[in-house]
């Protein structure tokens, strides 16, 4: 065709021979496409043409200006920022890119702050396994259980609509699945509780073994403690193993129920007179029937997991309702700063029990300790000596009666106000890792001069490791004596402070107390009888009752005196020990 007219119509070969315009078109197409071979045609006057082939050995030259199609252009090497700038120059891309950069930077900074806070506070974490379950696991499993329920029941509803005869199977299947779930819950909850209790036994035994490692090695009891630890681990692993077995038991039976529903649905759709257009709905029903297995099993499993995790809520609820101590500070009932001024202690019909249903430990003790007096408390093991001291510090609240110090009932003031005004040297001193100054004055209440006076009175090591393991027991007691010297309380309590130390250290402590606390009320729970011989009075307790209360020498000379019997037993035991050492 040329200028809108048909010049010729023939086969390809005939057109090549007879039509010059067609020959020019073919040659132009060969040259433009860059073919490696081209053909030359004879003139139109020749009836028989001869095609001559010519091989092109050289590379193609750059196409001339009249070529219709050019070779595709491409960049080479690094193009720099130019394409990025071109991209950002359209449709406010610079603004969007800036906002995205700022927001992402804020996200990264917030994430770093969160991780920094987590690293800084990890040592002060109060999170237990129960709290972790309540905060994360329980909420996740509850949400998953609700979602799985909706998916499972929607599958059953769809199967019931598309193949209504399957409802005959679906209704019993729901009943049996709920029955299996309830049967499983009864065992799974108990297994979860057993797992929690046995885990705490492992933790406490491990902590005890670490603290008493030196004593365990000294007595050669490593194998016994190791065997006990293995038994505790086995006891903890058994509930976990049985819990996993119960999960598999439940899953197997649920899969059988789902297979019955799917088979019944397929059979019903086969028997129902469905039209040709129902093939899509049949495929939809079968697809949901296959998914029912997954949804139903996940629903029951998440429900079971949530039911197991709810045990943590029960444990936390139990801890929340444990009776707590009284208020630290009772507003409007704070004692004066110089209280107690004289140190007079009045005990009126004091009765104490540790639990509401437990028997009385102290049974109506009444006595008066004058201010500045030194009183020793003696009695056999379990008589109630330590309980009386605990009631004085309100470690246990009185069931009946009262304790009055300088005219003030200690039950009416806050615990901090009471305990901060009393001094004590306990039988088992507590030390903290750190410096001597920190252990002497952890609240930074005293000056360096006062601390130095206490330090020179009792020679201490320079550093203190955790629990004071680099100190001997006598040095720890001297350290507690230093705390008491700093506090200068009008009432000082010694709770068998010298029971586990040597006689030399006992002599140092007693001499320092007589010198430094001459005007203070000193209450001594005695393990060694000579400790209370120089006291103004001795309070003898037996079976939670006040047996006698008088001067030491009067009690010794009194017939059938409990204190006299304790003195005789002490000296008899000391004499036998001395004879054994000499032998």
Automatic annotation (TrEMBL):
Q: Does the keyword Cell cycle apply?
A: no
Ranges annotated as spanning the membrane:
94-113, 156-180, 254-272
Q: Which residues form the ABC transporter domain?
A: 345-568
Species of the source? Dipteronia sinensis
GO MF annotations, alphabetized: ABC-type xenobiotic transporter activity; ATP binding; ATP hydrolysis activity
Quote the protein name from its UniProt record: ABC-type xenobiotic transporter
Family per record: Belongs to the ABC transporter superfamily. ABCC family. Conjugate transporter (TC 3.A.1.208) subfamily.
Residue ranges annotated for the ABC transmembrane type-1 domain, each copy included: 125-292
Q: What is its EC number?
A: 7.6.2.2
User: What SMART domains does this protein map onto?
Assistant: AAA
């Amino acid at each position: 065709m040329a200028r809108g007219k048909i010049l010729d119509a023939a086969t390809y070969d005939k057109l090549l021979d007879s039509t010059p315009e067609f020959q020019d078109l073919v040659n132009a197409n060969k040259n433009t496409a860059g073919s490696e071979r081209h053909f030359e045609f004879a003139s139109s006057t020749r009836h028989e043409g001869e095609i001559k082939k010519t091989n092109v050995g050289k590379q193609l030259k750059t196409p001339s200006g009249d070529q219709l199609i050019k070779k595709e252009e491409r960049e080479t090497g690094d193009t720099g920022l130019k394409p990025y700038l071109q991209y950002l120059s359209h449709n406010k891309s610079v603004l969007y890119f800036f906002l995205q950069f700022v927001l992402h930077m804020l996200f990264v900074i917030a994430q770093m702050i969160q991780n920094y806070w987590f690293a800084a506070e990890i040592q002060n974490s109060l999170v237990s396994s129960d709290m972790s379950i309540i905060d994360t696991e329980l909420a996740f499993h509850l949400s998953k259980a609700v979602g799985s329920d909706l998916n499972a029941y929607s599958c059953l509803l769809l199967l019931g609509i598309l193949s209504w005869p399957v409802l005959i199977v679906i209704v019993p299947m729901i009943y049996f699945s709920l029955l299996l779930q309830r049967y499983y819950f009864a065992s799974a909850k108990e297994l979860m509780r057993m797992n929690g209790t046995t885990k705490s036994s492992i933790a406490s035994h491990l902590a005890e073994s670490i603290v008493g490692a030196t004593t365990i090695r000294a007595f050669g009891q490593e194998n016994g403690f190791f065997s006990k630890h293995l038994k505790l681990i086995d006891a903890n692993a058994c509930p976990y193993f049985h819990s996993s077995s119960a999960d598999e038991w439940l899953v197997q039976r649920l899969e059988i129920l789902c297979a019955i529903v799917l088979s019944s649905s397929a059979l019903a759709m086969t028997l129902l007179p469905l039209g040709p257009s129902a093939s899509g709905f049949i495929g939809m029903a079968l697809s949901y029937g296959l998914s029912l297995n997954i949804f139903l099993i996940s629903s029951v499993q998440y429900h079971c997991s949530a039911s197991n995790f709810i045990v943590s809520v029960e444990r936390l609820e139990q801890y929340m309702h444990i009776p707590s101590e009284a208020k630290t500070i009772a507003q409007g009932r704070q004692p004066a700063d110089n209280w107690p001024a004289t140190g007079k202690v009045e005990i009126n019909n004091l009765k104490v029990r540790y639990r509401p249903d437990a028997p009385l430990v102290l049974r109506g003790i009444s006595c008066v300790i004058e201010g500045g007096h030194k009183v020793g408390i003696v009695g056999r093991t379990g008589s109630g000596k330590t309980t009386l001291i605990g009631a004085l510090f309100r470690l246990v609240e009185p069931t009946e009666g009262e304790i009055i110090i300088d005219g003030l009932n200690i039950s009416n003031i806050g615990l901090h106000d009471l305990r901060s005004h009393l001094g004590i040297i306990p039988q088992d001193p507590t030390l903290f890792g750190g410096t001597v100054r920190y252990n002497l004055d952890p609240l930074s209440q005293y000056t360096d001069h006062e601390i130095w006076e206490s330090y020179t009175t009792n020679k201490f090591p320079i550093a203190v490791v955790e629990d004071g393991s680099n100190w001997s027991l006598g040095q720890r007691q001297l350290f507690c004596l230093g705390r008491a010297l700093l506090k200068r309380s009008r009432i000082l309590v010694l709770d068998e402070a010298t029971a586990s130390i040597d006689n030399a250290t006992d002599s140092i402590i007693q001499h320092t107390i007589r010198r430094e606390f001459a005007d203070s009320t000193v209450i001594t729970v005695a393990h060694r009888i000579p400790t209370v011989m120089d006291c103004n009075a001795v309070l003898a307790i037996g079976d939670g009752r006040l047996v006698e209360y008088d001067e030491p020498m009067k009690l010794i000379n009194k017939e059938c005196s409990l204190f006299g019997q304790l003195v005789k037993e002490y000296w008899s035991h000391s004499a036998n020990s001395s004879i054994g050492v000499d032998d």
